[in-house]
Design brief:
By secondary structure, the protein is an all-alpha fold. 80% of the residues lie in helices and 0% in strands. It has helices at residues 2-12, 17-28, 37-45, 47-58, 63-86, 88-97, 99-150, 157-177, 183-197, 217-244, 249-273, 285-308, 312-348. It is globular, with a radius of gyration of 26 Å. The termini are far apart.
């Protein structure tokens, strides 16, 4: 029950872990706002025990599974809320008297939400591609060329071009291959909403949660060994290909750095498209093989992102040398677009 409580606040109300800690503190101390001095003293006396219990709930092995279920129902309620907000009496009439029209209304809201997701994906991809292209072009001049010259290696201009163009091209390809939900997802949302609003369609089968698989130490060692082999094989193939086209050591390091970051950013960018998806993607042979080589690269990108986010010098350089000018450029471009639009509307009138 506590995990359902955590899931609702996490997925529906978008609480982060710090807010969830506070919420759970109130859950275990429901009269905290009216607490007397002796109550406060008692809580203080058992504070560390209470904190351990809260952390156990936040790290509970059922949290992710319950979160997926709650996320699905969050989408149902969100779509239903949109449908009701348009015209509450008409929505109720359709729901009660005209089920087919109610389904069409839900489909209309879903399509509008998909369109918004598609626009967010496109807008995020365009901004990210421009940002990465400018970032990479600047790094070529302030880092890659000086470092290559310092190490006494020959500057290969085609490798510089590849290093500048490949990251935004990869992100463009990822965005192009990322699609928003289709009609089968809409049908599942319609069925889910009917389950919520009609008592006779209420889900009667219990949802089964799985305990984490307990593996023996030997199995963990074997799996860890194979994952390491996968990691080395994935990056080894990329390095081998770059060596074949005579990339310098500096160019290879920078290429791998951006390959990992873009792979991870591409996964996060896909969240825009999957914001209203209630159907889990099915694994096939191709996706299994792709994940076999791709997951280590994404994992490296996540590690790099988390590592560099803690390095203030990197953040300073990224913000003031690269990101700040880019933000100014984007803002000026948006203002210019708005100005041209105003002028066009003035001429038409």
């Amino acid at each position: 029950k506590i995990q359902i409580y955590v899931g609702i606040y996490s997925k529906l109300f978008k609480y982060d872990d710090a807010m969830l800690e506070y919420m759970l503190f109130h859950y275990f101390n429901p009269k905290w706002n009216e607490a007397a001095d002796e109550d406060i003293a008692l809580v203080a006396q058992h504070y560390w025990e209470l904190r351990d219990v809260i952390y156990q709930q936040l790290r509970h092995y059922f949290r992710k599974q319950v979160g997926k279920i709650v996320q699905r129902y969050t989408i149902y309620f969100s779509i239903l809320q949109d449908a009701i907000a348009e015209d509450p009496p008409a929505t109720y009439d359709k729901l009660k008297e005209h089920p087919d029209q109610f389904k069409k209304l839900i489909a209309k809201v879903c399509e509008r939400r998909y369109k918004e997701s598609r626009a967010r994906l496109r807008r995020g991809a365009i901004r990210s591609i421009i940002y990465i292209f400018l970032t990479k072009a600047i790094l070529v001049f302030i880092l890659e060329i000086p470092a290559t010259m310092f190490l006494g290696e020959e500057i290969k201009y085609y490798s510089l071009v590849v290093n500048v163009l490949f990251p935004p091209a990869l992100l463009f390809l990822i965005a192009l291959m990322t699609s928003v939900p289709a009609d089968d997802n809409t049908a599942q949302i319609q069925a889910g909403i009917e389950e919520v609003v009609f008592s006779e369609k209420k889900e009667k089968h219990p949802v089964k949660l799985s305990y984490p698989t307990k593996r023996k130490a030997a199995a963990n060692i074997i799996f860890g060994f194979f994952y390491t082999i996968t990691f080395l094989l994935s990056f080894g193939l990329v390095i081998w290909a770059l060596v074949q086209i005579e990339f310098s050591l500096v160019s290879i390091v920078i290429f791998l750095f951006f390959l990992s970051l873009i792979s991870f950013f591409g996964i996060r960018l896909g969240r825009f498209a999957r914001a209203y998806s209630v159907i889990e993607a099915r694994e096939n042979l191709f996706s299994f093989i792709a994940n076999f080589f791709y997951v280590p690269i994404v994992a490296m990108g996540k590690w790099l992102t988390e590592t560099f986010s803690q390095i203030n010098v990197f953040i300073f350089l990224l913000d003031f040398i690269i990101e700040a000018p880019f933000k100014i450029f984007v803002e000026m471009f948006e203002q210019w677009t708005a100005y041209v639009k105003e002028r066009k509307e003035g001429i038409v009138e």
